[in-house]
Structure formats: structure tokens, C-alpha cells
Amino acid sequence: MSGHSTYEPKTGFERWLDERLPIVRLGYDSFVGFPTPRNLNYWWTFGGILTVCLMVQIVSGIVLAMHYVPHVDYAFASVERIDRDVNYGWLLRSIHANGASMFFLAVYIHMFRGLYYGSYKSPREVLWILGVVIYLLMMAAAFMGYVLPWGQMSYWGAMVITNLFGALPLIGGPLTEWLWGGFTVGNETLNRFFSLHYLIPFLIAGVVGLHIWALHVPGNNNPTGISVKSSKDTLPFHPYYTVKDGFAIMLFLVIFAFFVFYAPDVLGHADNYIEADPLVTPAHIVPEWYLLPFYAILRAVPSKLGGVILMFAAIGVLFVLPWLDTSKVRSMRYRPLARWFFIFFVIAGLGLGWCGAKNPDDIFLPLGSHDGHATGITFLWLARVLTLYYFAYFLVILPLLGFVEKPKPRPASIADSVHGAKAGPQDSGVKPAPAE
């Protein structure tokens, strides 16, 4: 996309097309001849895996929409009919439902890789922000898709989440009614969610195009965090990374297939096989696993409005992350202190997910008993501690570490890191080199 193109049309038709619509040149420069750092590890294969996940979700979703009925009286039955009467409907539905979980699994690994290797730092701020936009769109699409089967958990999940908007001052009430299309979650809500659930994946595809464009301007980050300095630091994307990504995609699809064929319902909730009943509330309302950390943050705050603000702030803080991290070294491979704080951050994220799945009043750590009842630290308090660390990591730890941390020596170039050369001129001084 940027830089000098190395594409040379070989046939008359290619030359004719290239002079009028250089689409082949665009594809060649982006995915074949694109110079890529030669030291990318397997954490960098999740970009390709995510592309496959998006295509699988769009294709399977289009076919499922041909059989789904977005009406509260028929939605649940139409999903059951897809499972039982439509040719390979059970397979399509299992692929689409488990595909959402696989999509989020891959995107979380992709994001944590970006956090660890500093892929959000200059000059990749726009690339990172577009990634967060994709993540937000994915959450919206997943939530609306979860409501469509019109099961008990999806109905009450929609009731809880949409009611959150009512906590906003002044606009909360009208906004909630506008979302519902009436005075409660009903047929109009289901129609709107179905329409938006169909639309958003195409918006994601558009933003993914911008994300790839923004990637190809500064080029890939890499495990050292050092910028490309010469042709010795790079390899053409094809065949080196097409083969590597292809191998990783095949392994990922094997794991995907295990869930589709052997455990199709293990990532969902049993209550969603019960038709929605507005008169019966489930004993414990929980969202899908990939939204649990934010659900735990929401419940950790006694105030409803405070919980809503903190939940959205947990995602909003990612937008300004490039300006919160003051370190001039990108990769945590050379940041000994930051690496430990990052490990605790990952543990905090997993812990929040665990807290979100549990009843907040259940005991996490028993410390004794009183009047025959166990006492101790509840999941609510654990979630509060982890929420505190989540925000402290972004707002306190990363800004301060840049001033107090002494990074390890870094290789002089990407090629040196691959061939094991000794530290170069960048490492001779006490002060770390600029982030480039």
C-alpha cells in the first residue's frame, strides 16, 4: 500500500487491467511482496486467524439468516428448526455459535500480544485505535446475536444490558425506549437487533480494511520492538509468512472443529435451550464468557451509573493507551519490571472473568463462620480488587514505569536478534534508545 511497488504485470491482460484498476498490484503489494520483519513469532499469526474467523462468521451468518425468523413468536422455534430440519443446519449453527467464541479467543490473544510487544506505540497509534473500534463492533455484534435465539438467558441478558442505558442522566430513559422500540424488550427490539447483527459484520470488514491499510504504512511491529532498518531485517510475506500463517490457521481450525463436533454447547448456557419467558427470571444471569470481565467490573461498583461508566471506561482507556505508556522501549521483552506487571494484568483479566461467572455474594476465600454461615472474602470484593488493578495498570503503572524502569540491552537490528549478534550501539548507553 505504501512505498515502492515491486509488482510487474506479466501478461497483456494484467498490464491492461493494471493501467485501469490496479487491484492486483494492491493485493500483491499487501500480501505477497510486502516486506515483513524476519523475526515474527507465532503470536503474529492471529491476524490471519482473525481474518478467517470473520469470513466464517459472515458466510455462516448469511446462510442462517435465510432460515431464521425475527419474531418473538417464531424465533425460538425457527432456531430449533434450523437444528433439526434444515440440511446441515446443526452444523451451520454450531459453526456460527462456536465461531463467535473462537473469534473472541483469537482477538484477545491478538490484543494481549499487542500490549506485551508495545504494538500500540508510535507510529502505530491509528492502527491500534482501529483495532479497538473493531473490538467494540465485535462486542455489539456478539451481544445482539446472543439475543436472537430468544432463549431465557439471552432474553434476560438483553433486559439487563439495555436497562443499563437507563442509568445515564437525562437521556437514559428515552435512549432505552428507543433501543427497545417500546416499553420493554419485545418484538421491535428483536427486529432491530437482527437488522444490526446482520449489518455490523460488514462494518467490521470495512474497518478491518482500514486496519490492514494502517498496518502497511509503518509496517509490522516485531518481538524486539526495533524498527526495520535495512533489507536484511525483512522477508517477503509470501511464501515465508503465508506458509507459517497457513500452518497456524490449520491448527486453530482443528481446535475449532473439536468444539463444533464434540462440544457444541459447552461454551453456551443451558438456559438458552428454554424459550424466553418474561414472567420467570433465571436464578443467575450471566453473559457469554468473552464479556464476563466487563460484567464483573459493572457489578463491582455499588452505584448503577458508576458501574456503567466504569464498564465503558475499561474499554475507553484502550483508546488512549498509546499516550499513557511513557516508556521509549516498545517490547516488554526488554522491560523487566513491565513484564511482571503485565503478567499480573493478565491474571487480573482472567480473575475478573471468573468473578463475572460467579454469584457476587458467594465466598471466594472462607475465613471462618458466624451463626452457622461461612464468612470470608466474596467474589464481589475480589472483583473490586481486580478492577482497581485493571485501571491502575493503565493509569498509574504504565505512565510511571517509563520514568523509573531501566530496560535491558537491545540488539542493534532485527537481523542481529535473529542471528544472535551481540548488542549494538543502541545498548552501549544507560539511557534506552528512542522508540523509533
From TrEMBL:
The chain crosses the membrane at residues 42-69, 90-111, 126-148, 155-175, 195-215, 246-263, 305-325, 337-357, 377-404. A ubiquinone binds at H216. It is a multi-pass membrane protein. One of its GO terms (molecular function) is metal ion binding. Residues 13-224 form the Cytochrome b/b6 N-terminal region profile domain. GO terms for cellular component: respiratory chain complex III. SUPFAM superfamilies: a domain/subunit of cytochrome bc1 complex (Ubiquinol-cytochrome c reductase), Transmembrane di-heme cytochromes. Its main location: membrane. InterPro entries: Cyt_b/b6_C, Cyt_b/b6_C_sf, Cyt_b/b6_N, Cytb/b6-like_sf, Cytochrome_b, Cytochrome_b_C_euk/bac, Cytochrome_b_N_euk/bac, Di-haem_cyt_TM. Binds 2 heme groups non-covalently. It is found in: Membrane. Its cofactor is heme; heme b. GO terms for biological process: respiratory electron transport chain. Gene3D superfamilies: Cytochrome Bc1 Complex, Chain C (1.20.810.10). Keywords: Electron transport, Heme, Iron, Membrane, Metal-binding, Respiratory chain, Transmembrane, Transmembrane helix, Transport. Residues 411-436 are annotated as: Disordered. It holds the Pfam family Cytochrome_B. The keyword Transmembrane applies. Heme b b566 binds at H110, H211. Residues 227-412 form the Cytochrome b/b6 C-terminal region profile domain. Heme b b562 binds at H96, H197. The main subunits of complex b-c1 are: cytochrome b, cytochrome c1 and the Rieske protein. Component of the ubiquinol-cytochrome c reductase complex (complex III or cytochrome b-c1 complex), which is a respiratory chain that generates an electrochemical potential coupled to ATP synthesis. Belongs to the cytochrome b family. This is Cytochrome b. The lineage of its organism: Bacteria, Pseudomonadati, Pseudomonadota, Alphaproteobacteria, Maricaulales.
